[in-house]
């Protein structure tokens, strides 16, 4: 792999993607959930034609039924730090020559790959993380994309962005929370930047896995929302993805709420892929027509 500003995170993420590259069958129920959500969104886009969707963190596209999505959308833009994963995913379903699909990779959604590389060797002293975040403020990692999308899907990438921060400086670092908060906020801002007025963002994220909640598979599905809420109360969830915090950000954060007209939480589901299962949930929001 050639050296680029993204090399550090590219290596990290392509190693992970390689482990799930052939896991298409294991993603079936999760893929169905996401496809159903997207079908619902498209069904409500009455009067609009030639819809365009952007997917952040598309990777192996195991959670995307690309063939069906090409029926729903006139154009799909797939974004990831791992270009080979996207290329292989598109080729797997025979769409490599399709002009409906645009691959935008490698793109680093954190904008901090060189810093993460450096910090993982030499922990940043107090103030260093804040200065890096200051430098990043007001810049966009996605300005190369044209924007104006009808739908933007973030597909289980937020926990990966936060995990990269955890690996770089550790949760106990005094600036970890600032870093996590900035990455989360920036990610939602990216989604809004990419959406046209009245377009819909669908933020899907893994919440907790069987590593810390081994009994989740036995739970009757109708009990999952309450049980997931109890897990969150017990602080048993991945850092940075508390559904109430994300809902509150979308509704009340000054730079976000001014651009959002509607927020709809989506009930959790279980994504079981054999060796491990996850509780996953979604948050759907609409960009204001004039925000
Ligand atoms: C858990 S996977 C999502 C599942 C994926 N959609 C699939 O079906 O295989 C997270 C994806 O986010 C990508 N990713 C992680 N960190 C990233 C970053 N900093 N910038 C862009 N993409 C990133 C990974 O390469 C990976 O493809």
UniProtKB/TrEMBL annotation:
Entry-linked InterPro entries? SAM-dependent_MTases_sf (IPR029063)
For this entry, the protein name equals: Leucine carboxyl methyltransferase
Its lineage opens with: Bacteria, Pseudomonadati, Planctomycetota, Planctomycetia, Pirellulales
């Amino acid at each position: 792999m050639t050296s680029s500003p993204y090399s550090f995170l590219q290596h990290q993420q392509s190693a992970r993607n390689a482990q799930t590259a052939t896991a298409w069958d294991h993603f079936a129920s999760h893929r169905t959930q996401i496809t159903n959500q997207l079908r619902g969104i498209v069904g409500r886009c009455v009067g609009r034609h030639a819809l365009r969707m952007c997917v952040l963190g598309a990777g192996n596209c195991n959670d995307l039924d690309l063939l069906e999505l090409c029926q729903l959308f006139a154009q799909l833009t797939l974004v990831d730090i791992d270009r080979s994963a996207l290329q292989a995913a598109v080729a797997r379903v025979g769409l490599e020559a399709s002009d409906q699909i645009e691959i935008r990779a490698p793109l680093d959604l954190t904008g901090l790959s060189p810093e993460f590389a450096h910090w993982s060797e030499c922990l940043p002293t107090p103030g260093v993380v804040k200065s890096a975040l200051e430098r990043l403020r007001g810049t966009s990692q996605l300005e190369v994309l044209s924007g104006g999308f009808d739908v933007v899907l973030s597909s289980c990438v937020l926990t990966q962005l936060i995990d990269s921060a955890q690996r770089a400086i550790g949760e106990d670092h005094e600036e970890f929370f600032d870093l996590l908060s900035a990455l989360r906020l920036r990610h939602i801002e990216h989604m809004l930047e990419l959406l046209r007025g009245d377009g819909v963002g669908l933020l899907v994220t893994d919440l907790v896995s069987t590593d810390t909640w081994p009994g989740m598979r036995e739970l009757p599905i109708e009990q999952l929302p309450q049980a997931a809420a109890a897990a969150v109360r017990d602080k048993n969830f991945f850092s940075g993805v508390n559904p109430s915090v994300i809902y509150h950000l979308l509704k009340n954060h000054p730079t976000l709420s001014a651009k959002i007209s509607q927020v709809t939480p989506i009930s959790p589901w279980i994504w079981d892929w054999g060796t491990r299962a996850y509780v996953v949930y979604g948050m759907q929001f609409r960009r204001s027509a004039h925000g």
